[in-house]
Write a structure and sequence with these properties.
Length: about 190
């Protein structure tokens, strides 16, 4: 019989493998996915709808990116989906308060390590320094592209090593819709 820890590890590996290894469907149309993402996030042009749906402001306005409104339930579920972004990106707007400029997808990076004492840990890593022998699982994809990462926590204790992926659905980015920074986003 498997121990509770072994079962939990298998569940995490199964979830992570299913989510991260699932490739984009063959022949899928990125433009169709972008249109669906715009349709799914259109309601968030009204920031009060975002707040009601669990998105909360979690950063100041960062030049070339915006204010990050994070849905922590989505950010902690180990799933990514083009139609349910974990983060909405807003900029202040004198006329309407806040203007939606893009979305960001976030997923904790899952890895594994066997320590010198023989114990194995599988899951997200919360410290800045990775233990010797750490191995990451497969990089997740969205819109047929690999997410950026794994990257170290931006806020120690609040965020694990993770993957993220920016999509400027609502404000054109001269560097490309999937680039992390958008020089046209001003705070």
């Amino acid at each position: 019989m498997l121990s509770a820890a072994a079962i939990a590890t298998l569940v995490i590996i199964s979830m992570a493998t299913a989510v991260m290894a699932a490739p984009q469907a063959p022949g899928s149309d990125v433009n169709r996915l972008l249109a669906q993402a715009r349709q799914a996030t259109d309601k968030y042009h009204d920031v009060s709808v975002a707040l009601a749906d669990g998105y909360i402001p979690a950063s100041p306005c960062e030049p070339e990116m915006g204010i990050h409104y994070v849905n922590f339930a989505l950010a902690s579920d180990l799933l990514v989906n083009e139609l349910t972004p974990e983060i909405l990106l807003y900029v202040p707007d004198e006329e309407i308060g806040f203007r939606l400029v893009g979305v960001e997808y976030f997923m904790a990076a899952i890895g594994t390590v066997t320590f010198p004492n023989g114990t194995t840990y599988t899951g997200p890593w919360w410290e800045m320094d990775l233990p010797p022998g750490w191995v990451w699982f497969t990089t997740p994809t969205l819109y047929g592209q690999s997410m950026d990462g794994p990257m170290e926590p931006h806020v120690l204790g609040l965020m694990p090593w993770h993957y993220d992926f920016h999509v400027y659905l609502w404000q054109a980015n001269p560097d490309g819709i999937f680039e992390e920074w958008n020089p046209t986003v001003k705070c």
